[in-house]
């Protein structure tokens, strides 16, 4: 009988842990969303993974986004450098507003 109470106590502690960390609320809301779905998905597990944010494609998407970010940062830096060059070239052909006012 003591073994039964010890395992019951561990279960209760684990349940409180899940409740405190918000796991029970999250799982409940995902299961309610699945229940309320008018067109039930063919794969309920994929539905749950998707709504929990644990789909397997995310790490690939994250890596693709990191690569895209690095590429765009490089392009940005090149464009900023080109912009600076063009401004310098423009200054050679156009007088500054201060010089134009002095004449």
TrEMBL record:
Localization: Nucleus
Coiled coil spans:
62-89
Which keywords has UniProt assigned to this entry?
A: Coiled coil, Nucleus
CDD domains xrefs: ZIP_MycBP-like (cd21937)
Stored InterPro entries: AMY1
Q: According to the lineage, what is the superkingdom?
A: Eukaryota
Q: What is its main location?
A: nucleus
Gene Ontology terms: cellular component? nucleus
Recorded GO molecular functions are: transcription coactivator activity
Q: Which PANTHER family match?
A: ASSOCIATE OF C-MYC AMY-1 (PTHR13168), C-MYC-BINDING PROTEIN (PTHR13168:SF0)
UniProt record similarity statement: Belongs to the AMY1 family.
Name of the protein described by the UniProt record: c-Myc-binding protein-like
| Species of origin | Stegastes partitus
- Upper lineage: Eukaryota, Metazoa, Chordata, Craniata, Vertebrata
């Amino acid at each position: 009988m003591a073994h039964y109470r010890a395992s019951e106590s561990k279960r209760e502690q684990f349940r409180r842990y899940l409740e405190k960390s918000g796991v029970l609320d999250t799982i409940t809301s995902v299961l309610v969303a699945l229940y309320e779905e008018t067109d039930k998905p063919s794969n309920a597990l994929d539905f749950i993974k998707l709504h929990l944010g644990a789909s397997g494609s995310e790490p690939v998407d994250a890596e693709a986004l990191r690569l895209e970010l690095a590429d765009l940062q490089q392009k940005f830096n090149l464009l900023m450098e080109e912009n600076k060059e063009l401004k310098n070239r423009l200054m050679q052909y156009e007088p500054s507003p201060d010089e134009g006012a002095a004449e």
